[in-house]
Design goal:
The complex is a heterotrimer of chains A (167), B (333) and C (516). Chain A is mostly helical and 167 residues long. Chain A is 70% helix and 2% strand. Chain A folds into two domains: 61 residues; 80 residues, no CATH class. Chain A has a two-stranded antiparallel ribbon. Chain C is globular and about 75 Å long.
Chain lengths: 167, 333, 516
């Protein structure tokens, strides 16, 4: 945990992130309340209807986020930052490729995408040699393929390459 | 096409002979990849058990070159499984085993699905329903049970909500002029245990779900919801066989209900592909393991394919529509 | 005692040598013991790889077992089950990714221990606790099987709700985080659990007209995202490597840990009892692990340090989870109700071998039942030996550079998320949960109540509503008999424990102040 970070480096303030998150959670709560009302929130003769629980759960989400928001807005003095820009860049350097990887799975299947993901990490984030990268990036997905598709007969998402090879 | 490497007359002749001899076999389609059996219900239920039994039988007797893989998609009362098959238009490597939720789920919810989105393959069996009570209770016949139930407050435990068990419960209420409190549970096994533990007064469990407790002397069958008594004469519990259970109609309770255990494929598959699976199921039905399974569950072994099956499904869909409309189970639009 | 005699007969069945024709030579080999080792190794692999559950392994091997005798077949299959139980703790401790629901509580202290370079200690503690829990449950099954089956029958919907309530109450109110953030996290968990099909009315709710949401959110998706992906993002922020690379790599760590564990016999016993109770009712291994962790945290004098790598925080959930996982097989055999998906597939197997689970199984298929029970004893011993030998190798995984292990973890997270429902939508949701996990953790929202609410939420709601339907809407049903009232009272005490103890402390405090 990194709550005590009080460095002078620049970055988004903890307060702003907290406020944003509380608002987001509040919106989530309202969405749940909306859905619950549609499902019926009454108490029939045989106990609660489908939306009864979600309604009060949603209400509590809204209350909790409102209190948190109020606390953040009234609190003063803290200049704590959420994370400095350098750290956020590091986080994004993993988050964005992961997102790209997940989108790739839809088109190329999980095995081919995994080759690319491992290669990216080994070459760009850490700097391994091309030979070691190629070896691991190809062997691990291949092994996974054998274990899942051949041994355990678990079908994972596949793409054009696997189809070409007859799977 | 495989090209002969050597052009000698002998090889050509042999190839020709092979091709001619193999015509019949060649015309027949065969799966090229592992075939998925989608089960629109959780693990351990009747449909799941049957799918896994078929998987085992096919593997043991080597009935197919490619393996069968069972995949459970139980979400949304099975809606998830149906939508998956609906969205796999033309995929011959996917089949789905169905139960009554083929009809009830789209009717009770607004999931955009209808059985016509699928290609019927074959009906393998029909599952029976039996009226069970706790063996400690005094009532031994349907009449005694219904007389007691008329005093009110009887609890009926069943699998799922707005599905077959509840439909039968509503039908009994209508036919006999009684009122039950229906309590939905997740699976047939759980339902049977609730009855054994006296947390409910009756169930309409399938034979296979309750047989163990019948044999253990904990439950008593009162009648079977079929037009004729069950066809199994082997002694099951003491001196009683499945065939000893009277039909509900003969006991003055005019309710009949049988549940489909059949297979469908996605829309857009070729007749050849359907034929492969029909043949496969014929072979499965001929094995001793299948006969054991039928015996254990006291299934009604009606087998149907093609138009006959499609007509049956269409008729059954209309029947469910009416039953559910009467019971007020249709989704609010 | 007849049971003991039966058990020894069972041991004889399992250990029996059989003449086999191997490569043309007739050899006498302990066939069942070999099956046991194969089953356990396979089970461990399944336990480690997210995306493969014990149910997969059992289902895939089921066809292979048709040519065997039922006793041999069930030994092979149940050993996969044991192996998977052991294996589930490994990824929780090493990477903060619980492969199975009941390993979630193990991450709370297991992962911090691994980060401090004590992965070997954490793994040894987890494996040993699993063994102790399972052994306790098997002894229970051996001695009082019929009695226990009767106890399970007492549990109707109201009693089940009371058990869920107790599990929940003993866990909440523990976190150091701000109370309204804890409340928000917990309620988000409950809200996510209610999405999809409503079991009681058969209606869809909170799906907002989409088809993706009809299956709801499986909590594994949330856990893989919140814990697994979230952790990788946090690691990136703090610099490039997993900590704990200086992990010790020899077997002496096992003996050192055992010395420490001996001190915690009371904790183990308590966790065993909680586990068996939860397994038999059958509420399952997941509530058992949370409940045991929560109670241990309240009672232990190191309670304040829980969550920072306290060995008791690994012992409590692991012992309870495995006691529950093992005793859950009893309702399956005696009543035909599977306590877990894996047990459900085993149940399917029994039917194919023409074995009818239920009260008559113990009478009609004695050899089979006692062979199975004997294999539980032996399987756990064999399993413990195998996993403990692996401890140094497993701890060494942490030495693999981040650049290699991180993408492989991401890949297996995606595989795991996909296989839960075979749905691509779930993989996307896993990523969303990952980002959410990172932000929530940085803003001091506790994740454990969120996950617990997701696991228990829909089950608890279902039991609550079932109970109300059968009591015609009267809340009195939750205090209608001795059993349900006492569980509910325990739950209420647990829920208000912090208020009660704070109250006591305040009274004492004021007294002290007045005195001064």
């Amino acid at each position: 945990m990194s709550d005590d970070r009080n460095t002078a480096a620049s970055g988004p303030s903890q307060r702003n992130v907290e406020i944003g998150l509380a608002i987001l959670i509040g919106i989530f709560g309202l969405t749940i309340i909306g859905g619950a009302i549609k499902a019926g929130i009454g108490w029939g003769f045989d106990g609660p209807q489908a939306g009864f629980f979600p309604f009060y759960v949603g209400l509590l989400v809204v209350v909790a986020s409102a209190v948190t928001l109020y606390q953040e807005l009234t609190a003063t003095g803290s200049k704590k930052i959420f994370a400095d820009w350098g750290q956020l860049k590091q986080v994004l350097s993993v988050a964005i490729p992961t997102l790209v990887y997940i989108i790739m799975i839809a088109f190329l299947g999980i095995y081919v995408s995994s080759v690319a993901l491992i290669a990216y990490f080994m070459l760009v984030i850490s700097s391994f040699s091309y030979l070691r990268t190629a070896l691991i990036a190809i062997l691990v997905p291949l092994l996974t393929f054998i274990v899942f598709e051949k041994w355990f007969l678990v079908a994972l998402p596949k793409g054009p390459l696997e189809r070409m090879l007859g799977y | 096409m495989i090209k002969p490497k050597c052009n000698s007359l002998f090889v050509a002749a042999a190839a020709l002979g092979f091709a001619l001899g193999g015509t019949a076999a060649h015309a027949q389609w065969e799966p090229q990849r592992p075939v998925e059996i989608i089960v629109p219900a959780g693990t351990g239920g009747g449909a799941d058990q049957m799918a896994r039994a078929i998987q085992g039988i096919v593997a043991k007797h080597n009935l197919m070159k490619q393996p069968l893989v069972v995949i459970n998609k139980a979400g949304g009362a099975g809606g998830e499984g149906f939508l998956d098959v609906k969205n796999s238009n033309g995929n011959p490597h996917k089949i789905i085993i169905t139960l009554s939720n083929l009809f009830t789920t789209p009717l009770a919810t607004d999931i955009p699905f209808n059985w016509k989105d699928l290609t019927p393959v074959a009906m393998l069996a029909l599952d029976e329903f039996v009226l069970w009570v706790n063996a400690d209770k005094p009532y031994k016949t349907v009449k005694e049970f219904l007389d007691a139930a008329k005093k009110g407050g009887f609890k009926m435990a069943g699998t799922g909500s707005r599905q077959e068990d509840q439909i039968i419960t509503v039908a009994i209420e209508k036919a006999a002029g009684v009122k039950f409190t229906y309590i939905p549970y997740r699976g047939g096994g759980e339902v049977a245990v609730q009855l054994v533990g006296n947390h409910a007064d009756a169930t309409v469990n399938n034979p296979i779900e309750a047989v163990a407790h019948w044999r253990g002397g904990k439950l008593r069958p009162l009648c079977v919801f079929d037009g004729k008594p069950l066809a199994y004469n082997d002694k099951v519990a003491g001196d009683l066989a499945w065939s000893s259970i009277p039909t509900c109609k003969s006991q003055g309770l005019d309710v009949e209900y049988l549940m489909l255990r059949g297979f469908f494929m996605p829309a857009g598959v070729t007749p050849d592909q359907v034929k492969f699976y029909v043949d496969l199921f014929q072979k499965v039905r001929a094995t001793p393991e299948w006969k054991d399974l039928m015996n254990n569950g006291a299934f009604n072994q009606t087998f149907m394919t093609g138009k006959e099956y499609a007509d049956w499904v269409a008729k059954e869909h209309d029947r469910h529509l009416n039953l559910m409309k009467d019971a007020g189970f249709l989704a609010k639009k | 005692m007849e049971e003991i005699g039966n058990l020894f007969h069972g041991f004889a069945t399992v250990l029996a040598f059989r003449d086999m024709n191997i490569f043309g030579y007739t050899m006498s080999i302990p066939f069942n013991v070999i099956l046991m080792v194969i089953g356990i190794v396979l089970g461990i692999i399944i336990g480690i790889l997210p995306g493969l559950g014990g149910a997969n392994g059992v289902a895939i091997l089921l066809p292979l077992t048709f040519s065997m005798q039922p006793t041999s077949a069930i030994i092979l299959l149940s050993c996969i089950y044991w192996g998977a139980l052991f294996g589930g703790a490994i990824t929780s401790i090493l990477f903060n990714i619980p492969g199975e629901p009941w390993s979630v509580a193990t991450t709370f202290d297991g992962y911090p221990m691994a980060q401090q370079g004590r992965a070997g200690e954490a793994l040894t503690a987890a494996f040993t606790s699993s063994f102790v829990g399972a052994l306790f449950a098997v002894i229970l099954i051996t001695l009082i099987a019929p009695l226990v089956a009767g106890f399970a029958l007492q549990f109707g919907a109201a009693e089940k709700f009371a058990v869920y309530f107790l599990a929940f109450a003993s866990f909440v109110g523990l976190s150091k985080e701000p109370p309204f953030k804890t409340l928000a996290a917990m309620m988000i968990g409950f809200a996510l659990a209610t999405i999809g099909n409503d079991q009681i009315t058969g209606q869809l709710r909170l799906t907002y007209g989409t088809t993706e949401l009809i299956a709801g959110f499986d909590f594994l998706i949330a856990v893989i995202g919140l814990f697994g992906i979230g952790e990788i993002l946090l690691t990136m922020e703090e610099g490039l490597s997993f900590k704990g690379r200086e992990a010790k790599m020899n077997l002496s760590i096992v003996l050192q840990t055992w010395k420490k564990l001996a001190k915690y016999w009371w904790l183990s016993l308590r966790s065993c009892i909680i586990g068996c109770w939860m397994g038999i009712t059958p509420a399952g291994a997941t509530p058992a692990s949370f409940m045991s962790y929560g109670i241990a945290k309240r009672i232990s004098k190191n309670g304040k340090n829980f969550g920072n790598g306290e060995i008791e925080g690994v012992v409590a959930p692991e012992t309870a989870a495995h006691a529950a996982g093992t005793s859950a097989l009893l309702p399956m055999l005696a009543l035909g109700v599977p306590g877990s998906p894996t047990a459900a597939v085993l149940l399917g197997g029994l039917l194919i071998w023409n074995l009818q689970p239920g009260p008559m199984l113990f009478v009609e298929n004695k050899e089979f039942v006692w062979g199975l029970i004997a294999s539980m004893y032996l399987g756990n011993v064999v399993g413990l030996i195998i996993v403990l030998t692996c401890v140094p190798f497993l701890a060494a995984i942490l030495r693999i550079p981040f650049g290699i292990i991180a993408p492989i973890i991401l890949m297996f997270c995606s595989v795991g998320a996909y296989t839960v429902n075979n749905s691509f939508f779930d993989v996307i949701m896993m990523f969303v949960f990952g980002i959410l996990g990172y932000v929530l953790k940085k803003c001091n929202y506790p994740l454990a109540p969120l996950v617990l609410a997701m696991v228990l939420g829909d089950r608890a709601e279902e039991a609550f509503r079932q109970a109300l339907i059968s009591s015609n809407g009267s809340l009195g049903t939750f205090f209608s008999n001795g059993l349900v009232s006492s569980i509910m009272t325990l739950g209420l005490i647990a829920l208000f424990w912090s208020v009660i103890s704070a109250g006591i402390a305040r009274i004492r405090g004021t007294n002290a102040a007045t005195a001064a």
